[in-house]
Specification:
heterodimer; A: mainly alpha; 74% helix; 0% strand; B: alpha/beta; six-stranded antiparallel sheet; 13 helices; 26% helix; 20% strand; binds flavin-adenine dinucleotide
């Protein structure tokens, strides 16, 4: 089983929006396609199922991300997301988004609530992962 | 070249081989170096001589050297030895699986067949062993003192005189000034200065590391440019890499270099030694003859060649490797602060724990800030979703302090290597390694980690996580052919000659009976010079 190229393009577009709130450039798509093949992340059936679910219901990305981050850190789908992240981090146009930032109190509060939100998402995602 | 009888053949172009060869060439001997000789053909040319941030801002092709053409720079899975090498440094391990196979479920070493060996990626930390440590290693201290000076003059060492001086190499007569620190190092140092009497009473001494890094020009090398590309390129040549020496030696008429070779075994007759080897690309056999052979192929590499030459597939040789762990710490005072302009990838401070006050059995912590490694390296370690982890890490990054902790290492029965036949391997055999610490050693490590965590807390640096990358990860090996006064097989005489041979010498760390917790490489180089001087 494999994700076809068109779906891979949608996949990276969704991850890019999810991670940094931008659209994926053509270069990012090309690199993502290459990365998935070269790191052998193509064939795990459970992962492919997760990818297809993300393509149909993009909101699930957040749930899967939180669940795999906490409960399944070696999950193959998570590796795809980390690859997407790494590719984005090396694009000059997104540099500012990845630089260390000066943080104020409001950012800290945001981070705190993010953390709580991600804990809740993790449990919802865990149930989903269990069903797949 | 096959017909020439060389005065000396040196096997290996790493830190040890480079120093041994330079001494032999300077003495006027006709020297041949044979070596794996693997070079980085892919990335070196595409990394521009620019600052890390500038590269990140401007270079469209940066993904090639940050992630690798096969995305091999994105780490998945457990942290193991060699995983942390960036794509431009990964060539160091090319051909190793094929020609230097190791079988072990307890020990993962890093070996190299590269031009310049592991020295292509070493962290440049230079320490001189104390008299007690040299005695325990089996190294003659007066010869070593002189050898340290010779090596420092060749490679260039920078550092500073401070509380850590007895443990570093800061008493060298040719010492260049230390590099600057970034805010991370400065913060730690300022906290130390406030509490140093208290820490010193508990045996902790903190100061600037001595590094084989130039802060003043030397030969055709520039001073350190603070570009923070230290993990990726050697553009300014401020960092000492052994290939600098070999490149230089190649300009001498009494020196020849042949790469693409794996030396397999040696055989002696009345007054010559023949070295048999295989080419890496076609496994074709080649032989070379010399009056003397100097093995400097790394501790494990040398043990293979020696065991094979004695046709020994039974005996176990002792193995030493400094136990190593990382402490990932955070300095709360720096959280959420924008990083300053200065960026340094090398160790900024060294911490030494001299429990007995005798400069013996001293573990060392090397403190690094986390600036030029990218966020994706940390993501897989974080127990959070990628999206939150990324924001969280941006906040944490300026405050991250990584402490690489090296423990001293003594021989014990659970650590050995043995060559076993396996005709499926290119060389017809493989090195089996076993490494377990006894209870006492394990307890000692745990205690040391606790002590360092305590000392770091005194410096307002709080350890969040201890990472044990597994045995072999220190990349400091020794002890397989221990120094001994007796001329017996599998030991080295004090002058480096291999027991029961006539003309075979060993110039790497194989003879060290003990590995201090300080970095060993400066001492490897000094010993290599010492052995080559007496040959
Ligand atoms: C990332 C990293 C950071 C480090 N940081 C530090 C530090 O800060 N301080 C410190 O003290 N040490 C450090 N080290 C360790 C240091 O690199 C080694 O101790 C040192 O390089 C060993 O040098 P060597 O010449 O003895 O062996 P090697 O570097 O292993 O060289 C062996 C040489 O022999 C050749 N060779 C091997 N087998 C054969 C064969 N069969 N035939 C032909 N040629 C052969 C290889 O091509 C190579 O050139 C670090 C290492 C790494 C990887």
């Amino acid at each position: 089983m494999k994700v076809n190229d068109a779906d891979l393009q949608t996949e990276i577009e969704l991850y890019t929006r999810y991670l940094i709130g931008h659209s994926a450039t053509p270069k990012v798509s090309v690199l993502f396609l290459a990365a998935i093949t070269r790191r052998d992340l193509e064939f795990d059936p459970r992962t492919i199922k997760m990818v297809h679910l993300c393509l149909r219901y993009p909101l699930l990305i957040g749930l899967f991300d939180a669940a795999t981050g906490i409960f399944e850190r070696d999950n193959e789908w998570r590796k795809r997301l980390i690859l997407a992240f790494a590719i984005l981090e090396t694009q000059p146009e997104y540099l500012l988004l990845f630089q260390p930032q000066v943080f104020g109190v409001s950012d800290l509060i945001k981070l705190f609530f993010n953390g709580i939100g991600s804990g809740c998402r993790a449990f919802a995602g865990k149930i989903l992962l269990w069903m797949i | 070249m096959d017909d020439i009888v060389w005065d000396a053949i040196v096997v290996g172009s790493g830190c040890s081989g480079a120093m041994a060869a330079q001494t032999l060439v300077e003495r006027g001997l006709k020297v041949l170096m044979i070596d794996g000789g693997v070079k980085d053909e892919r990335y070196k040319r595409i990394i521009p001589p620019k600052d890390f941030l500038q590269i990140r801002k401007e270079e469209q092709e940066q993904h090639r050297f940050f992630l690798g053409d096969n995305f091999e720079g994105v780490p998945f899975g457990k942290i193991i030895t060699g995983e942390h090498l960036t794509p431009p440094r990964k060539f160091m391990t090319a051909f190793v699986r094929q020609f230097l196979p190791v079988v072990s479920n307890s020990f993962i070493p890093l070996e190299s067949l590269a031009y310049g060996g592991l020295g292509n990626g070493w962290g440049l930390g230079c320490c001189m062993f104390s008299k007690n440590e040299l005695d325990a290693c089996g190294l003659p201290s007066s010869e070593m003192q002189n050898a340290y000076e010779v090596v420092a003059k060749r490679i260039g060492v920078s550092g500073a005189q401070d509380d850590a001086t007895p443990y570093t190499a800061a008493t060298l007569s040719t010492l260049q000034p230390s590099i600057d620190m970034d805010s991370n190092g400065e913060n730690l140092q300022n906290n130390y200065l406030k509490k140093k009497e208290h820490l010193k009473r508990h045996g902790f001494f903190v100061g600037r590391p001595s590094l084989a890094l130039l802060t003043q020009p030397k030969d055709n090398r520039l001073p350190y440019q603070y570009r923070d590309m230290d993990f990726y390129s050697d553009n300014d040549k401020s960092a000492y890499r052994p290939w600098l020496t070999i490149d230089q030696l190649k300009t001498h008429s009494n020196f020849s270099f042949i790469g693409n070779l794996c030396a397999v075994r040696f055989a002696e007759d009345a007054d010559t030694v023949t070295v048999h080897s295989l080419t890496l690309d076609t496994t074709e056999s080649k032989r070379f003859v010399a009056k003397k052979l100097v093995l400097a192929s790394g501790v494990l590499g040398t043990s293979r060649i020696v065991l094979r030459s004695f046709d020994d597939y039974e005996n176990q040789l002792p193995l030493l490797s400094n136990p190593y762990s990382y402490l990932a710490g955070i300095q709360p005072g720096l959280l959420g602060k924008d990083t300053d302009k200065r960026k340094i990838g090398f160790a900024q401070l060294s911490m030494f724990y001299d429990k007995h006050g005798n400069n013996m059995d001293v573990p060392m912590g090397s403190c690094y800030s986390y600036r030029s490694m990218m966020l994706f390296h940390l993501l897989k370690e974080s127990p959070l979703d990628v999206k939150s982890a990324y924001r969280f890490l941006q906040y944490m990054m300026p405050a991250f302090t990584i402490i690489g902790l090296f423990h001293p290492e003594k021989p014990s029965s659970g650590k050995w290597v043995q060559l076993q036949k396996n005709y499926n391997q290119t060389t017809g055999d493989e090195l089996h390694a076993h490494y377990t610490l006894n209870k006492e050693e394990q307890a000692q490590l745990t205690d040391t980690e606790k002590k360092f965590s305590w000392a770091l807390r005194q410096l307002n640096c709080f350890v969040l996580k201890k990472i044990a990358p597994g045995h072999g990860a220190s990349i400091h090996y020794g002890g397989t052919l221990p120094f001994s006064a007796k001329n017996q097989r599998y030991t080295l005489l004090p002058d480096g000659k291999l027991g029961e041979t006539k003309n075979v010498y060993v110039a790497d760390g194989s003879g060290f009976n003990y590995l201090p917790g300080k970095g060993i490489t400066f001492s490897l180089m000094a010993n290599a010079h010492r052995v080559a001087s007496g040959l």
